[in-house]
């Protein structure tokens, strides 16, 4: 799969709605703290709730979401779904290494607990901190930061969102790119590291909405790669089919 492959276009509202209609696994995550699968409905809940929380912090077309990625080179599933939430608000999504200089302009930041005080988070209008453990309901958020795990749970399961026809995205050390939002796509896709550009971010979201997207907290090259036909093997120790309150 390459960034040049043609693909039917859609919008973020339709993509998340398709995700919400999926009762089966849509996202498989494997990490040091355990493995799990999330159904499409739960992923959609995370996307809707995250959009509501991020909008409350001002994230939108004029306020980017900066996501700090761990040095090992991966995009945690909570960060991935936060990226979808931000894209649904029409916000630019920026991935940054912990040591990166903060970007210019208004932005909120999202970082794992261990990177809450990384250089890249300095200057953020709001800093959200999340716990990486698969079922963590709260994070150890330092003073003056916000607990993403805890706060997101208070937001609605479904929110009205304006359709966004394109994604603006940048990977670490790369310039921003924009691409149309693709339609849901069947098949199993492995996200090794993080997307390299907006087109690959869109393909990851399309796999989430129409197939099975797998990710892990292990080093990767940063490109979603086609991994096989629909019905990838079960890599989770548990399937989460309802929102955990």
UniProtKB/TrEMBL annotation:
Residues 218-229 have a biased composition (Low complexity). This is AMP-dependent synthetase/ligase domain-containing protein. Residues 218-245 are annotated as: Disordered.
């Amino acid at each position: 799969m390459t960034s040049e492959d043609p693909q039917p276009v859609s919008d973020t509202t339709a993509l998340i709605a398709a995700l919400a209609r999926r009762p089966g696994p849509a996202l498989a995550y494997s990490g040091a703290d355990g493995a799990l699968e999330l159904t499409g409905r739960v992923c959609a809940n995370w996307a809707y709730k995250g959009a509501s929380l991020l909008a409350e912090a001002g994230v939108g077309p004029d306020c980017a979401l900066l996501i700090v990625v761990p040095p090992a080179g991966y995009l945690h599933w909570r960060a991935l779904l936060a990226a979808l939430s931000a894209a649904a608000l029409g916000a630019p999504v920026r991935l940054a290494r912990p040591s990166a200089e903060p970007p210019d302009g208004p932005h909120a930041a999202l970082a794992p607990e261990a990177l809450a005080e990384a250089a890249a988070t300095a200057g953020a209008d709001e800093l959200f901190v999340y716990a990486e453990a698969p079922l963590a309901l709260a994070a150890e958020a330092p003073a003056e930061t916000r607990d993403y795990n805890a706060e997101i749970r208070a937001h609605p399961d479904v929110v009205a969102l304006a359709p966004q026809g394109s994604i603006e995205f940048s990977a670490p050390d790369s310039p921003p790119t924009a691409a149309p939002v693709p339609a849901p796509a069947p098949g199993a896709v492995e996200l090794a590291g993080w997307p390299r550009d907006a087109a690959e971010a869109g393909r990851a979201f399309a796999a989430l909405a129409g197939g099975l997207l797998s990710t892990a907290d292990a080093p990767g090259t940063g490109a979603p790669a086609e991994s096989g036909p629909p019905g990838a093997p079960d890599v989770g120790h548990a399937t989460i089919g309802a929102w955990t309150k």
